[in-house]
Specification:
There is one protein chain. The protein has a single domain, classed as de novo design (two linked rop proteins) (Up-down Bundle), CATH 1.20.1440. By secondary structure, it is mainly alpha-helical.
Length: 151
């Protein structure tokens, strides 16, 4: 066994469940913050996908480690994340619809594609508003404090 891996396993074995949970949650929250920052700059399909994945993973960790979190505050954080996730999901669904239309041979100049692109544009606007609101409100720091994830 590699020495570094053995050292990591030994260090991890000394953590309490609460410490491990909070370390994991801080890491997942950091990833959400990273994706929020990058989504502010680009609303392409990959960026939106990565944001959604980071939120899903944080949510899963919050469910797994719920006993280590203040329940009311965790519920509030999940609610804020849900809003961003819903906006990102709406845009993602339109991306899929556009892909399916292209595969079905629908012309780029068709009214259907124009409607889908207009809806995506509106979805982008709402998503960007939600992301910017979270960013301006320093959401990741606020979420860390609410969840009591102090280093």
């Amino acid at each position: 066994m590699d020495g570094a891996l053995r050292s990591q396993r030994h260090a991890a074995s000394r953590l309490t469940l609460r410490q491990y949970a909070h370390e994991t949650l801080r890491s997942r929250l950091g990833r959400v913050a990273f994706e929020l920052r990058h989504t502010r700059q680009s609303l392409d399909e990959e960026r939106i996908h990565d944001l959604r994945v980071s939120i899903r993973r944080l949510g899963a960790a919050m469910r797994i480690f719920r006993d280590t979190l203040p329940a009311a505050e965790a519920k509030r954080v999940r609610g804020e994340l849900k809003e961003i996730m819903e906006q990102a999901g709406a845009v993602r669904e339109l991306d899929i619809a556009l892909e399916l239309a292209a595969k079905a041979g629908v012309a780029e100049s068709s009214p259907l594609v124009a409607i889908l692109r207009a809806q995506r544009g509106e979805g982008e606007r709402r998503l960007l508003e939600a992301v910017r609101s979270a960013w301006r409100g320093n959401a990741s720091l606020r979420w860390r404090e609410r969840l009591q994830l102090h280093a």
